[in-house]
Amino acid sequence: MVHDKINYNIDEPSSSGKTLSIAFVNQRQYRAQQCFMSVKLVDNADGSTMLDKRYVITNGNQLAIQNDLLQSLSKALNQPWPQRMQEMLQQILPHRGALLTNFYQAHDYLLHGDDKSLDRASELLGEIVQSSPEFTYARAEKALVDIVRHSQHPLDEKQLAALKGTQK
């Protein structure tokens, strides 16, 4: 939930600003488990609903949902996104939604922090960077994962010598 009011008290109803609520709901639909994202934008001044959308989340539609949500918010708020911001967003995101799923999976492995998880995260991120080199966040995340991976293992004599520049 996001509010555009300073010192917002969650227990009191607000009479100014707008409230953006995003909720994720897992439901069984026709024998299949589905995840929905519900988005609601309310103008607190008059209680009117400015935006009310529900998205079905699948493995490949995250980017489409993100783009639609940003466009819908822009339209509801009557506030177009600056061209520079749109260009920056295109630079940092992959062009295929499946890569975004893999990115978040790799990030989840990073959060586990054990050797096996870090190796898997590095492997996934390597595949992402190879197939989508323009995905800037994936490159940065891969560097972070590799630094964490290598910092957990002491160097053997050969690696230490290579670091010092004196090969044995």
Automatic annotation (TrEMBL):
UniProt xrefs under Pfam families: CadC_C1
Residues annotated as domain CadC C-terminal: 1-87
Domain of life of the source: Bacteria
InterPro entries in the record: CadC_C1, TPR-like_helical_dom_sf
Name of this protein: CadC C-terminal domain-containing protein
